[in-house]
Amino acid sequence: MIHDTGRRRRVVACALAALTLTAQAPRPAPPAPVEMWVPKKTPYAAYDAPNRPWWKLAEVRALHRGAADWSQPIVRNRDLVADWHQQAPGNRTAEVAYADNRTAIIVWEGQVRVTIAGHPTFVAGKGFEIDVPLRVPFTLETIGDRPALWFEVHAASDLPLYPVAGTAARPRDVAGFRYERRLVSGGAGTPDATNPLYLDYYKDVVQGGARATAFVAAQHLFVNNIRGRATPTPPASNLGHFHVGYDEFWFVMEGNVDLQIEGEPLIAGAAPGDVLIAKQGRWHRASFGGPEGQMGTRVAINPYPLGLHGYSVRSGGRQ
Question: How many structural domains compose the chain?
Fold first, then answer.
């Protein structure tokens, strides 16, 4: 929780103002598609562990049945890494920062006291999306009487930095790197209108009516909330689109998601907490499933806010 009442009011007021402006701002018209010769990866990229088309949360839990603290790798590609983390009540992560990229976190269960240097401490529960600026130390502490579970995304090139003041001894080296005590430059990142510090998605969007929109739109990381109503699954002839140079994955936040990926069986009814992955160069088409009219949210995650989408010439870029 934020202990300074005045600061808390200012943070809440700024957040609500940003959400209101976002909800009222007109959507810019997308640029008209342009026909080009586009390189499509052939053969398309294979799924290498731990990547798989559909990571069910139930399967992740089964891998760690009986453990209070655990981490599970979910996504590994040349741009991004993503993992599930569970932490027992009373435990706290080491204080770390990341050199050149933001960290995205989705809290899924329990309660986490989030301490981000230079900002008021807050408590995040289910559905909170957290955007930690680059080079800013942070910790996550599980409070209450149940474990906390969260999904965490980093740039693949990032390694943790440890503030000397909070470290009892030199950190353990990792493969190919030795930790040394040095001065660092470049300054700390800050929240802004495009990259707020956090969003209580269920409270602000699902219940409050704010527009679902991008939560992180920064160099090397795009976390985009996409919300809509369930509709009949499109026919297989609707290929969707593909990306030339990167993988894309989705966190199911609300409702159900159907996903058609080139070369894979149709994924039908992915549930909240599930993660879906489309490898580089594969056609893919996501839609909201479940009872017709049910609201759904998929959080699309990839390294490029302005990433290229390749569409069928026949579709005119409308799929």
Answer: 1
